[in-house]
Amino acid sequence: MIQVENVSMHYHTRQGRRTVLDRINLTLHKGQNVGILGRNGAGKSTLVRLLAGAVQPTSGRIHRSMRVSWPLAFNVAFQQHLTGLDNLKFICRVYGVPHEPLIEFVEQFAELGIYFREPVAHYSSGMTTRLAFALSMAIEFDCFLIDEILVVGDKRFHKRCHEELFVKRKDRSFILVSHDPNIIRSLCQTACVLHEGRLHHFDSVSAAYEFYESAPVVPFRGGATP
Amino acid sequence: MSTDQVLTGQGSFLRSLAIQLRVIRALMMRELITRFGRENIGLLWLIGEPMTFTLAVSTLWKAAGMHHNSPIPIEAFAITGYSSVLMWRNTASRCNSALDQNRNLLFHRNVRIIDVFFTRILLEMAGATASFSLLALAFTGFGQIAPPQDLLKVVWGWFMLAWFGAGLGLTLGTATAYSELVDRFWHPISYVMFPLSGAAFMVDWLPDKVQDYVLLLPMVHGVEYMREGYFGNIVHTYHDLGYVACVNLVLTFTGLALMRGAARQMVQR
């Protein structure tokens, strides 16, 4: 279970203190999933980073009793000197799992061939993307945090990612943030809308969608994804 | 320890310690390959780099006839001096760029800012210490310089310099999360500090008035103490390790205090 209790996040800007997230509550049990809709700058990335535990909130608390992934996205900046294998070893060391059993899966999924053992500097952007996704799938989590995932890459790769994440791991939880209601509608059981710092809960995805569509557009407030 | 516990990141102090050690090890391996690659001697450049620097500077000083008025052999003088500069200055510099170069890793819950700093501090300390020891051993072996008079003093002085580098690194490195000015000013400051740091002179050679000012710099005390240990009574040294310890403590605590807010500052960028 992930339990978010009254979490607020303030940033200090030149114009003074700005509230990005305002007393947010969210509970997600093992096996459930939720889509979070929000426009650009609504605080989606901030929320994902808080859920991942990469940052601490200004106030409130987040309790995790299941294994929660790091924010999955394709724009991972790999260190250029490291090989694909080095990156796998690093992730495995950080998460405390042996890397040997995972080599085959990552090698196959990323389709890197001999380049798996070559520095990332020699990779094409497609290879980098495939490696990033393969590494995300190498460590088993109960809950995946997915940040605007389905917008990059070619069609065939999409299909394989989709298969790996939403079909093979359909028993897992996930939290998907996106500005695109169609993605959320096709993948999530429930949906919330992040609007002006508050998280609005809805009984159905279509109710969330209606709210999202009718909510007044606020001026662009935040930064892009990292 | 089960994988489950590791992945949820919950538990006792001992478990946290185990995670931290594992993360630091992972970061070290990563850092070594990133910095030195696998070409030629690879990871040994961690030691080779400072050794090359020290040797080059020693040669330069010898050619320039840096200190005709001292009984110490120039090689020993240069090795003790320049190694000390490398020790504190490289540690501080590496910490200065640590957050910027590792920001993507902070997405992993178990990778904390403090781990990134510990990794760099430990690597720099290891590299500089090995370089210094190897050079001293080699020159002693070839009969160029005499072995240290009081090894413990050398070690103690060296430790104080290492701690100074670590404290300075923590403070500067965390401060970079708050303002880019830190990095802008660090380069000119470190450049000016080198000639003032006691590496290229003994305090005894300076006029009395200048001595008071130079002794405000903590690293001068460390080098002086080390040289007292190395050369014994043939040199007259000035040092107050208590003063260095105070400065180091202040720097360490400032660094740790700044670290609390640094993660949040990083996200905002």
CA(first)-CA(last) distance of chain A: 27 Å
In total, the number of strands of chain B is 0
Write down the secondary-structure element order of chain A.
Answer: EEEHEEHHHEHEHEEH
Largest interface: A-B, 34 and 31 residues
In a nutshell, what does this entry contain?
The complex is a heterodimer of chains A (226) and B (269). Chain A is an alpha/beta fold and 226 residues long.
Layout: helices, strands, pairs:
The complex is a heterodimer of chains A (226) and B (269).
Chain A: E1 2-13, E2 16-28, E3 33-38, H1 44-52, E4 59-64, E5 68-72, H2 84-95, H3 100-110, H4 125-138, E6 143-147, H5 155-167, E7 173-178, H6 181-187, E8 190-195, E9 198-201, H7 205-214
Parallel strand pairs in A: 3-7, 3-8, 5-6, 6-7
Antiparallel strand pairs in A: 1-2, 1-4, 8-9
Helix pairs in contact in A: 3-4
Chain B: H1 3-8, H2 13-36, H3 45-64, H4 74-96, H5 98-102, H6 113-141, H7 151-175, H8 181-196, H9 208-214, H10 218-231, H11 241-268
Helix pairs in contact in B: 2-6, 3-4, 3-6, 4-6, 4-7, 4-8, 4-10, 6-7, 7-10, 7-11, 10-11
List keywords for this structure.
heterodimer; A: 226 residues; alpha/beta; Rossmann fold; 2 domains; six-stranded mixed sheet; three-stranded antiparallel sheet; 7 helices; disordered C terminus; B: 269 residues; mainly alpha; 11 helices
